[in-house]
Design goal:
6-stranded antiparallel sheet, 6 strands, alpha+beta, 23% helix
Length: 175
Amino acid sequence: VQIRGGNMGHMIQCFIGNPIVIKKIVLPLKQVTTSILDFPQGLQCLFLCDNLFDAIHSNVTISSNNEIEPFVFLDQAIKDYLEMIQPDGYFIYVETDYFGGEGTQISAIFKDGKILETYKENTANIDITIPWPNRLLESPINKALRYIGVIRDGQLDEFDTLGLGKYRHMPCSEI
């Protein structure tokens, strides 16, 4: 993820996986408006917009609304929902929150609705001993994208290979 200075911000929350997994996440929610994008390499991105977040919360008996560390938006209700519907296969969840080059990114790898691993990084704990641009390869999102099979395109990292850098904010249609 290459975030360059100035007033550039980047704040998204989304699930990324093959279209079958993404469909399985949305299917039980009955006519919720979603924002799904087709990505290269046979993947789709499902943004965690407010109406999706609300639909998940209203379709699960919530054991708690507690956040799941280290995430801000992925909470216990979403985790319970994913474990309940058990989408087959691997997918990832990512959160970014950058402004002016400062911020965090977090990812989780899921298999069949259960979290296997999480990664977190903020600009305060980036290992600057790794030369640029190789340090991008170790970012939490790139690690997770590699895990689900994303292959870098030339000099681009996995994040930019999929075009995630184009979406500084989620393309939600909510008012």
